[in-house]
Design brief:
By secondary structure, the chain is mostly beta strands. About 10% of the residues lie in helices and about 40% in strands. It has two helices and 15 strands.
Length: about 130
């Protein structure tokens, strides 16, 4: 019998003690239906070439997608980050990536857009799962 490796995020102080989830001011996350993940919205699309925040991505543009939170996992746990599939339809970006213990900061990633895309069309940027 296989054990579930995704931890339930509403038990105890999992979000604060192990995931160290800190949301940007005025922004809230949403729990998944089974409480094994939280959905975090986009804080900004950042153009690293021009060093400015943009609202819309243009075709052939590479942007840094910055979710509206910071995380810092500890105690041997890992965070599995799933990016929104809506982004994968219009850009080349990772589907999944891991955050290792000791890494602190926003779960940001890069996306190279193949089509124009408006950031307001995205209800969440990433889903965060805690792996035990």
């Amino acid at each position: 019998m296989a054990e579930n490796t995704f931890l339930n995020l509403v038990r105890g102080n999992t979000l604060g003690s192990y995931l160290h989830l800190s949301m940007n001011e005025g922004v809230a996350f949403r729990y998944g239906g089974d409480y094994t993940y939280v959905e975090v919205p986009v804080a900004e699309f950042y153009n690293t070439t021009e060093e400015k925040v943009v609202d819309k991505a243009s075709r052939s543009q590479k942007l840094k997608i910055i979710p509206a939170c910071t995380v810092g996992v500890r105690n041997g746990y890992k965070i599995l980050v799933r990016t929104n599939p809506k982004l994968q339809e219009v850009a080349n970006c990772p589907a999944l990536f891991l955050i290792e213990p000791g890494e602190v900061g926003p779960p940001s990633f890069y996306a190279s857009f193949q089509r124009d895309f408006d950031a307001t069309n995205l209800d969440w940027a990433v889903r965060l799962y805690l792996l035990g």
